[in-house]
Amino acid sequence: MVELLIDKRIRHLEIILKISERCNINCDYCYVFNKGNSAANDSPARISDKNIRHFVNFLERASQEYQIGTLQIDLHGGEPLLMKKENFANMCIQFMSGHYCGSNIRLALQTNGTLIDEEWIALFEKYSVNVSVSIDGPKHINDRHRLDTKGRSTYEGTVRGLRMLQQAYQQGRLPSAPGILCVANAKVNGAEIYRHFVDDLGVYSFDFLIPDDCYKDADVDALGLGRFLNEALDEWVKDDNPKIFVRLFQTHIATLLGQKNSGILGHNPSVTGVYALTVSSDGFVRVDDTLRSTSDSMFNPIGHTSEVSLSEVFDSPQFREYTSVGQSLPTECTGCIWENICAGGRIVNRFSPEDHFDRKSAYCYSMRSFLSRASAHLINMGIKEERIMAAISQ
Fold first, then answer.
1. pTM of the model
2. E strand segments, the chain
3. What residues does 67 pair with on adjacent strands?
4. Least packed by Cβ within 10 Å: which of 145, 151, 363, 373?
5. Are 60 and 86 contacting, i.e. CB atoms less than 8 angstroms apart?
6. CA-to-CA separations, 123 to 86, 108, 109, 157, 282, in angstroms, rounded
7. Rg for the chain (alpha carbons), in Å?
8. Which class for 374: exposed (0-12), middle (13-18), buried (19 or more C-beta within 10 A)?
9. CA 167 to chain centroid
10. H/E element holding 55?
11. Hey, which residues does 246 pair with through a beta bridge?
């Protein structure tokens, strides 16, 4: 039984809500549309008002069952801005009018940025939506994988939307500066991507995402990805600017320094008191959204928000398996020096049709290389080797 079912406390509950299950661009690596799973295309194009009401009621019941510190709703897609603005506003009104027993409500949105205009900015301002933009680097790199449905560049449109968000934040209209999500690319230079975000785009909060590849995929380049991460890490360390936040870097370094409970959801789902679920536009609850790319039964629907309770979600076979996989290491990882820091890596990267999730990450080498480089940087900064070794062995 999951720990939180005993004490009934949740520090952070994050729901990826699929408000639009279609997209206006066609990223070739997209786990939603281009990894062989049809769940998105089989779902309604937009979430209905009825399913929004069911979702709010689900959250209200959850907050009565559990003491939830922060309740974060990630407005996701596809591309969430394909939703009509009037419907988006009505949805936010329903979110904010719910009764969540004192939980702190946070709205976040992930977008490719190409559809942002002044009306969207006004909606983000009115409903205090934290917005992050997906982009993979300068035009010649971004457009290798992130083209629109007609094969045209998305770079200029994405940067235009990002600039509008930055200006709105500088005017005090948005609750946070826009961040960036970037899929790490084994074929490019990580330092170039890092410098583009910081120097050219002026973004000081971003994250590098390990690709959603597993043993079904043919183009896994663990050596190249490790190099990418190390190149970007070297630039971040060289900048030595506490204002620049790169989640992948800072959370793993915190773990190397022995700071408890500093893991990343998706890399390690057993971060104490922190849980994430997916709710599709059809109103059904599932576990980690990236697992759809495996087409494994773990991603099967758990239940509809109109009928299922949060405790029933946590007690479902899918969530129990998800938690069990996250809290145990693949057989191949036993005895690895990094097992307490890496925790087996992202679950999706472990999948193979033959062994399901009992394989070391397809990007195992990448993370071992990255953690070695991060440890070397810490030693160069004057951190005692004994402190790092204590964290590694705890």
1. 0.93
2. 9-18, 25-27, 67-76, 104-111, 129-134, 146-148, 179-183, 205-209, 245-246, 274-279, 284-286, 303-304
3. 9
4. 151
5. no
6. 10, 12, 12, 19, 24
7. 20
8. buried
9. 25
10. helix 49-65
11. 206
Closest Cα partner for 47 from 70, 13, 14, 16?
A: 16
**pLDDT digit string (tens) for 102-120?**
999 999 999 999 999 999 9
Burial class (CB in 10 A: 0-12, 13-18, 19+), 291: buried
Tokens of 371: 């953690």
Cα angle 80, 283, 1 (rounded to 5 degrees) comes to: 115
- Residue 198's φ and ψ, nearest 5 degrees, are -75, -50
Output the six-digit token pair for 375. Answer: 């440890």
**Dihedral class, residue 240 (left if φ above 0, else alpha if ψ from -120 to 50, else beta):** left
Rounded CA-CA distance 165/173 in Å is 9
Of 102, 80, 62, 66, the residue nearest 25 (C-alpha)? 80
pLDDT digits (tens, 9 = 90+) for 73-99: 999 999 999 999 999 999 999 999 999
What the block records as the tokens of 125 is 């301002």
3-class SS of residue 346: coil
Please state the three-class secondary structure of 64-94 as a single string.
Answer: HHCEEEEEEEEEECCCHHHCCHHHHHHHHHH
Contact between 275 and 13 under an 8 Å Cβ cutoff? The reply is yes
